[in-house]
Amino acid sequence: MTRTHLIDVHVSNPDTSPVLRPTWAHIDLDAIAANVAVLRGVAPDSRFMAVVKADGYGHGLLAVARAALSGGADWLAVALIEEGRALRDAGITVPVLLLAEPPVAAIPALLDADLTPAVYSPTFIRALAAAARGRGQAAVDVHLKLDTGMRRVGTPEPDWPAVMDLLASLHVVRVTGLWSHFACADEPGHPSVEHQSRMFAEGVREARARGLTPDLLHLCNSAGTLTRPQDHYDLVRCGIAIYGLDPGNGVVGDVPVRPALRWVSQVSLVKRLAAGEAVSYGHTWQAERDTTVATVPAGYADGVARILGGRGAVVVGGRRRSMVGRVCMDQFLVDMGDDRIAVGDEVVLIGSQGTAAVTADDWAGWLDTINYEVVCTVGRRVPRAYSGAPGGRAP
After folding, report:
1. pTM for the whole thing?
2. In sequence order, which ranges of the chain are alpha helices (DSSP H)?
3. Which terminus of the chain is more exposed, N or C, with fewer CB under 10 A?
4. What is the rounded CA–CA span in Å between residue 178 and residue 215?
């Protein structure tokens, strides 16, 4: 016979949630601005591009863009035309790099949004030139991307001469930037890093020999910015580090960036379980002793991966607590032992409470992934609450 029973306690902090649903992500925009300023100091002779794609790595596209600009960013970078268009619609006028070629049919939208496209394929380059001529534009600025070893996008080395010659012949297409991307800069000492550095330098020489004179050369992502001062060139592109997260393997070192995202919820229900009772779908976890479990209103629809039950942890009452049982679509359970817990008590999914903390890197370890994915997958139905908006403006 089950001995589960509710623990009827007062709501300890009913008015602290800024939203109807007591699960939200707090974004510290001052942290983002400060992180940009710190990273600019790492590459003081280079211009700075803040990568704000993927809704600002889950932090909010427009809010992050404004914070990054207030911290000293000169450029922004996006993955999609829609992202660039949202920046323009919000009144942001700084140069915006589109990091990959869109479909040819999307070129009119690209031009309408005044984005600077990465280019690397002859088909796209010719279509872009034709569209610009058709509009009567004197020139459209582009950044030629060279594939130096990432093998994702970019012009492969055997095709460099032909693509460079094509661009040199098209006066309506103006190559104002030349760039590439490190594959393993987060692994200092990896042989590919030196190889890509040498390849890019060779690509720069090849471009100049073929009549291209780009104003901006750029190779370094966050990890490269932190570890490869010899490759800073004219501009550095920082993504994950502006959000206060390590690109990997501790390369952030003692550079004082701080995480901008704190993800919190509140206890929605408290129950006392008897030893031997099981919880959640599949009854994958069973109480070894009499214990208290707390229900938290966040689940895999919000980015709390289903497999975190039994391996993940949150902070409640100033201590790390185990997530138990399978995570559900909208809720998960936490083992509180014999500690007192009240409906409305704060639950920290990512961030700190007192001296205890759970980080995006902790989540990455539990999920066998990287902190990039963790913050990018905090779901859209998790409201973002902002503080420190530049100039006092709402994001």
Report:
1. 0.94
2. 29-42, 53-57, 61-70, 81-89, 107-112, 122-135, 160-169, 191-209, 222-227, 360-367, 371-376
3. N
4. 8
Q: How far apart are CA 247 and CA 35, in angstroms?
A: 14
Task: Please report, rounded to a whole number, the percentage of residues in the chain having pLDDT higher than 90.
Answer: 93
By annotation, the residues acting in catalysis are 53, 281
Mean pLDDT of 175-196: 97
Count Cβ atoms within 10 A of the Cβ of residue 169 and give its class: 0-12 exposed, 13-18 middle, 19 or more buried. Answer: exposed
Q: For 297, phi and psi rounded to 5 degrees?
A: -85, 65
Q: CA 284 to CA 296: how far, in whole Å?
A: 18
Q: What's the rounded Cα separation, in Å, for the pair 111 and 63?
A: 24
Which whole-number Å values give the CA distances from 258 to 111, 240, 255, in the listed order?
36, 11, 9
pLDDT band at residue 9 using 50, 70 and 90 as cut-offs: very low
Q: Is 107 helix (H, G, I), strand (E, B) or coil?
A: helix
Nearest to 268 by CA among 296, 292, 309, 298: 296
Tokens at 251, concatenated: 């390369």
Amino acid occupying residue 131: A
Pairing of strands 346-353, 116-119: unpaired
Whole-angstrom Cα distance, residue 351 to residue 288? 29
Q: Quick check: helix, strand or coil at residue 218? A: strand
